[in-house]
Fold:
Amino acid sequence: MTNAKISPDFNLLATAANYIKNDFVQDRLDWYGSPFEWVLNLPAGTKGKLGKQLVFQWCALKNLAVTHSPDSQADMIINGHRVEIKFSTLWKAGFYKFQQIRNQNYEYCICLGVSPYEAHCWVLSKPVLFQYVIGHLGQHTGSLGKETAWLTIEPKNPPHWIIPFGGTLEKAFIVLKSLSNKK
Structure:
């Protein structure tokens, strides 16, 4: 502790912080003891990197042919298909928000979401993204946004169109396994 004199305004601010901290700490109580609790403290960019590594490891452990993409237009190659990865933790309101979905050179987008004791995953083809997401759900300029999109999914009440593409890890794996191994 320093010998500097603590200002009255600092004390006032500290008192206010102590008063409102439960509003923020409460948000994380659901995650207490979860194997993913530590993820909440990561910066957004690091969470994205973690999501890519989780998908890579999961696919490898499930014996899918997986390699890193040679360029920045896709995150990895799974069974010969170019795949983009999007990652989200469950928000307090009960949904995942997959952000920065762009029209780049990939064939599929895997949306992986983790909650305290469940994980959800969807494998979406580019045509499906164009039909429901890209050009429809603009991230920075509302519905008029064309550059980037975001997809909000309530895992307990997903949009009807997304149901065939996963939901659970097991269902998403069936979709991934069905992708022919392109040579």
The longest helix spans residues 8-29.
